[in-house]
Specification:
Layout lengths: L1 E3 L2 H5 L5 E8 L1 E3 L4 E3 L13 E17 L4 E17 L1 H30 L10 H15 L14 H4 L2
Antiparallel strand pairs: 1-2, 2-6, 3-4, 5-6
Helix pairs in contact: 2-3
């Protein structure tokens, strides 16, 4: 079994795709023959993910010890390639939340510049906007599909990777 779950796939969220390739074969020990696999398919994936699969068959040589010494057998193996990626709804939801988060950040920066550059008196209600942004960002982050729990530090995760 082989899989790719590298940093590139994780950094592309919510447009990340995870690939898995599985090779299966069955050998009847009494006759040293390959037993064909009739069906081999991927099941259901995790929540907010879509699973797609592709089947193929190959012939290859396999050497194993049957108890009397090494035996090489030509086997018919079934190969399934499974791709797991986020659903379109989860991708759209995440992009919308990123846009809302960006709009709140730009609005907060605008209010800060406005307060610093104006010499006249500004209504006190506008000062609540930056506080509201600070309080809503953790709540928006927790809405992401598969998002981290509140209070976890994710800014330095790149430094922790091997």
């Amino acid at each position: 079994m082989s899989h790719t779950l590298g940093t590139l796939a994780q950094d592309m969220a919510p447009f990340d795709t995870y690939d898995l390739t599985v090779t299966m074969f069955v050998i009847e020990k009494a006759t040293n023959r390959s037993v064909p696999i009739i069906a081999f398919a991927a099941g259901e994936g995790p929540k907010n993910f879509v699973v797609s699969s592709n089947n193929s068959r190959t012939l290859s040589n396999y050497t194993y010890d049957s108890g009397t010494g090494p035996t090489t057998v030509e086997v018919e193996s079934s190969v399934i390639t499974i791709a797991v990626k986020r659903s379109k709804l989860a991708q759209a939801f995440t992009v919308c939340l990123l846009l809302i988060n960006s709009a709140l950040t730009v609005g907060s920066a605008y209010v800060t510049v406005l307060v610093l550059t104006r010499k006249e008196r500004i209504h006190e209600g506008i000062f609540l906007f930056p506080v509201t942004v600070v309080l809503t960002i953790p709540a928006l982050r927790s809405l992401y599909p598969g998002g981290p729990p509140f209070g976890i530090y994710i800014g330095g995760s790149r430094a922790l990777r091997p």
